[in-house]
Every structure is written in structure tokens, then in C-alpha cells.
Amino acid sequence: MTGPVAAGPAASYALRLTPTARLRRLALVATLALVAAVASGRGELAAVAAAPLVLLVLHPRGSLPTRVRVSASLAPDRCLEEDELALVLDVRVDAAERVEVSLRPPAGMDVAPCEPDPTEAAGTFRWSVVPHRWGRHDVGPLRVRIVTAAGLYAVTLQVSVPRVTVYPGGGTVARPVAPRQLPARLGEHASRAPGSGVEFGGVRPFAPGDRRRDVDWRISARHQELYVRQYAEERSFALTLLLDVGADAGEPGRSTLDLTVRAATALAQSYLRVHDRVGVVTLAGWTRWLTPDASLRQLHRLAELVMDVRADDQSIASGLSRVPRAVFAPGTFVVVLSPMLDLRALEAVQDLHARGLGMLVVDVLTTEPDVGEAPGLTSLALRVWRLEREAVRVELSRLGVPVLRWDGSGDLSGALLHAMRSVPPGVRA
Amino acid sequence: MTRVWRARLRQALTGPVLALVGGLGACALALPEARRPALLAAGLGATAVVAALVTGWRPLATTALALVAAAPLLAGAIEPAAAHPSRLLLATALLLMLVAGLDGAERGDKGATVPVVRSLAPRWRRWGTPLLAVGTSVVVASVGGAPAVPSVVLVLAGLGTGVGAVALAARLHRVAPERVARGRDPGGGGNPDVQ
Hints:
heterodimer, A: 429 residues, alpha/beta, six-stranded mixed sheet, five-stranded mixed sheet, B: 195 residues, mainly alpha, 70% helix, globular
């Protein structure tokens, strides 16, 4: 009955319409009525057969359409969460009576048909598609039923729709803050070192070789001595995002995986905008990484890597041992996004702490296991679970690593500022 | 209630309501002349219609249609009063309604969105054929019910017309051999999955 049809530009396909149950049933009624009329010798009973026979005779198989022209498009094919997409299906078939189109939208996606546009052809269908969850989604396939010949013949086609890539929505970092000590690279963060930036960094007595335009005449007049203005050198730093996606807990759309991915994308977007180098490492299944880079393509690469992250990858994690040193180069600041549900994240933090890197751990777990009102062992297990998490937090505090509990609603700038500025100078390389 | 839910409800109820009205109505036509075969067919038909709507089983729906159609036909064959042209026309309309209702009740992809339905044919073509069909039934019922002197020629003409109509309908819907063959679409962009 059904058959897949490729989406994309309009293409013409041969149409093989099949008789519906309606045709067979009309033939059945007509046959029964004629048999009754002949057997009983009552000609008037043939009246019951006349209507079905007329319907059958007026819609012969030879008059059916033989070709259909179908095209489906979904635009744009990449978007952010909550963006609105337009799904358009165009069906052109001669002598068709009715076209019925339905689809099964994936979870986390709203699909609503649009009102028909009188200026468009009758075979053009439009839907408004709003994805609520990041990831790669298949919208459809569209189930197109073409009915013709008063419902006596029909065909069902399955039209595939191009896959849409939904990137996580961001907006969790209002201001990209930086550590005090920045590696000597060109960037947009004002460092403590004097240089050729635009941010005022203080004044000092004039020395041979200083430019005349840097002389601060007001202070020079006050002190009867030449003083020049100093400016802060603008530098950048490397930020590596460590995503612990080995477990996913919470309601869909606000689960730990969702929060992790959204925070990672927002952080990367904010810091890449000010030309910092951003890298990523995922701790789930096969450890994957992206070496820090400040290029414009890095955000796209990072988003694509994050798209492949799913908690159902049950491969054995290999930890950070295989990750190249460039990912965690000295001076790199690491943001660990983790639900803290297993010890792999703690081991990774201990490993990075031993390398002398500054860190912030963002705890993205917002729910506890639902044990209901069950007394006894279940509540005891919950208490043990809480104690284990508390033990992890204590261990992180002992290491001097700040931990922020984040439910996806607040701004991460404050916590980042605290973490970046509170790391003891001796610890940072 | 949202627009989507209203549409979903309408889609879910239209078919069953049509089938119930058509099926039970046609069965009720056999009741005034309470002869046992017609009553039996009517009872079985009504039960089968309800069962077919509940189960959604297509063979049961076809059986229900046969039983329901048999009820007024048996009544008309046994009792001359039940073969009145107006009652036969009503039975025809109800049977067509039952066919359409069963068709609508069986369709639908559970879990899918409410189907968007567009009529591509002009209104006159959509309604013209059913009206012509019912009009033909009116003519046949009038002619068949008219008093006439029985003759061999008349019987043979009636029989020939009926058999000829059935033969013509069967011939027009026979599958031609060249239409059965599937093949690659020459201009279809290389997609062989065509129906």
C-alpha cells in the first residue's frame, strides 16, 4: 500500500492506484441486489444495485491518473530550539479527488497545519514546526493518501522530509569573564600586563621612547613632571568544556543532558565571540574531544560534536588519558558540566587539578530519584545516595574547586567570575 | 477545546456515526414485515456493524455490509409491501451511507496528527456522480415497480440489462497487464520506490 518517496525538489513518480474496500463493497451490494432481484423475480429490487453500478461504471480504471509530482521541503534545515520552521508539501496529480496528509511528529516537536493560502495551488500543504529539544530530528515521514474516482481507488505514499538539526538554545552567559592571568595571545580581555590595548591601566613617569600622545598632561602639570598613560594588554585564554554525559536524569527538555548541552553551547558562543579559544571533551562512551580553537567554524564543529552526544552510549569510557595535552594546555580554564552521578567526573576533576588547571564544576542535576512514600530500604537508599553526592561535593571543596548548582535559569557569569578569580595563583600554571 | 482536538474528534466520529446510521437504519427497514429470514439478517447485520466498528476488522465490516444489505433485500423478496420503490431508495441511500461510514471508520493513523484534507476536484464532480447514481436508482425503482404484463422479452431484457451492467463494471475495473508491471520511473529523479 505504501511506499517511500524521496523528498526534496519536485520529482515525478508513476502512480499505481489500488482498489479500495469501497469498490469491493459497492460491487458486493450490487451483486447481492441483482441476485435477489433475479431469484425473487422482483425487478424493483434491482434499484438497490443501480446506484453502486453507476458509481462503478462512471469511474473506470482507465480514467485514473498515472503520475504524481511530489516535493517536500523543510526550511531552514538548521535552527535553534523554539525557532519556527516551515514544512511545505506540494502534491500535483491530475484528476485526483482528495489528498489527505498526516504525519507523526517526533517527541518534543510541535507541528500545526497552516491555513491554506488562496493564492497557492490546492495541492500545497504547509505546517508550522517548532522544535523544543535540541538534536537531529526526522520530521515525518509524511503520509500522503491520494483518493480518486469517488473513493474507489487510492494510494498511500510516504514522503520523507529532510532531517533538521536543532541546536541548543543559549543565553546563559551575559558577560564572558576571564581569569586574571591570561596566556600571551591576542584577544579581547584586558590583562594585568601593560600593553597596546584600549583599556586604561594606570600612569607612570615618562621614559625615553614613550610616545608623546601618551603623555597625561593633567597629571604631569600637577606633579611638575611628565607622566604617561598605560593601557592594559588585551589577551585571550583557552576554555575547555568537559561534558559528563554518561547519565541523563530529569524530565525531557530539562534533563541533565539538556542543561549540559545548552550550557556548553552558550559558553562556547559567548567566548568564541570575544576570540577566546574554546575546546570540548565529552566523558561518555568513547571520549571525544575538540582541541581549543578560536576560529568561527569552531562553534559549528562544537555544535556538531554535541549533537552526537547521547546518554544511551554504553561504551566504556577511557577517561582523560587519551585526550591530547593541547586540550588541557597550561593556562586553560576548565568548566566541568556534570550531574555528579558517578565517580568518573570526580576522577577527571582530580586529574585536572593535579595538572594545575583552574576549574569550575557546574552541577546540572535538579531532581532527586522519585521513591514516593515508600519507607524502609528505599528511603535509606535515597539517604545513601544523598550522602554520596555530598561526599563528592566535600571532596571537590577540599580540592578548592568551586561547585555551582545550576538549573538552567540563571546566568553563569557570576559563578565563572568567582571561580576564575578565586583560584590560587600558585595553582594556575 | 482546541481546534486540533475538535478536528480530531470530528474525524473520529464522522465515520462511525455514518456507519451506525446507515447500518441500523437499513436493518430497521426490514422490521415492519417481520419475517424470520429478514429479521435474522437484520439482527446479525446490526450486531456485525457494531462489532466491526469496535474491532476495526475489515473482513468483519464487509460481512456486516453483506448482512445489512441482505435484510431489506430479503424483506422485499418475501413481502411485496417491503419492495415499495420509496423504501428501496431509502435502503440504497442508507447502504451507500454505510459503505462511506465503514470506509471512514477504518482509515486513520493512530498517533499521527489530524490529517489535513484538501479536495482537489470541483464541487460538481464530487457531488454529481452520487446524485446521478441515486437518480438512476429512482428510475430503476419506478420502472421496476410499474405494473406490467409479464412477458419473456421483458424478463430477458431486464436480465440482460443487469448482467450487462455487472459485466461492464467488471470489465472497466479489470487490471490491464501493462498497468500491473512496476518499473523505474524514467523521469523520477532515480527513485525506484514508486507506487
